[in-house]
Amino acid sequence: MRNIIASVSVAALIAAPALAEQTLEGVAADTYQLDKTHAFLTWTVRHNGLSGYTVNFTDFDATLEFDPEDLSASSITVTINPMALETNYPDEAKRAEWHTELSTDDRFLNGDEFPEITFVSTSAEQTGDFTGTVTGDLTFLGVTRPVTMDVTYNGTANVPWYGERDLLGFSAETTIKRSDFGMTAMLGMISDETRIEFSGEFLQNE
Question: Which part of the chain is the Lipid/polyisoprenoid-binding YceI-like domain (predicted)?
Fold first, then answer.
C-alpha cells in the first residue's frame, strides 16, 4: 500500500502543471543560478553566404542578481567553456576531431590558450514591460569589448520539487563581429557577423 501511495505522489508531482506567468509581481529579489539542464547557448555564422552554421556550447554557467522592482540594478555573470561544443557534423568517426579543431585551433576558439569566455554585465535597461537590454564586457580570445544583449523575460514559475523558490525564464540575443576579437580566419567564406542566442531558466538560490 505504501508503494502505491508513493507512486501516486511521484506521478502527481510529474503531472503537476508548472504554468509560467509573465509577470514580475511577487518575484523575489535574490540571487539566481542557471539551471544547466534547461539552458541553451548557440552561435551562428553565415557559411559561403548560403546558410547559417550553428554551434552549441555545452558547458556554461551564469549567476543572476535579479531585482524585479529595479531592473537596472540587476546583473549577470556568465562563464563559457570553449572546449565544450557540438555541431551537426555528419561523419560520426570524424565528429570529435572537428569539434576539437573548432575548440583549439588558433583560427577559431583557441581554447588551449584562452580556456574561458566570460561576460560580465555593467548595466541593464528596461525597454518594455518584459524586454530590456543588458550591456557588459565580453572577454573572448584575450580581448575584452562591450556587448549589448537584447533580453526578453519569459516569466516565472513555481514547481513542486523546488518548493517556494522562484524559477525564471529569459531569452537573449546579440550580433558581434568576430574580427573585433581578433578572429579573422576565412572572412568571406565565413561571415564576420556572428549571432549569439541564449534561452534558459534560472533558479532562486536556497
Answer: 31-203
39 HSE (CA, 13 A, CB side): 19
Distance of CA 38 to the CA centre of its chain: 10
How many separate domains does the chain show?
A: 1
| This prediction's pTM | 0.89
- Burial class from Cβ neighbours inside 10 Å (0-12, 13-18, 19+) for residue 60 reads buried
Residue 181 lies in a domain: yes
Cα–Cα dist 132/1, whole Å: 52
Q: 95-108, pLDDT tens digit by residue?
A: 999 999 999 999 99
DSSP 165: -
Over residues 116-121, mean pLDDT: 98
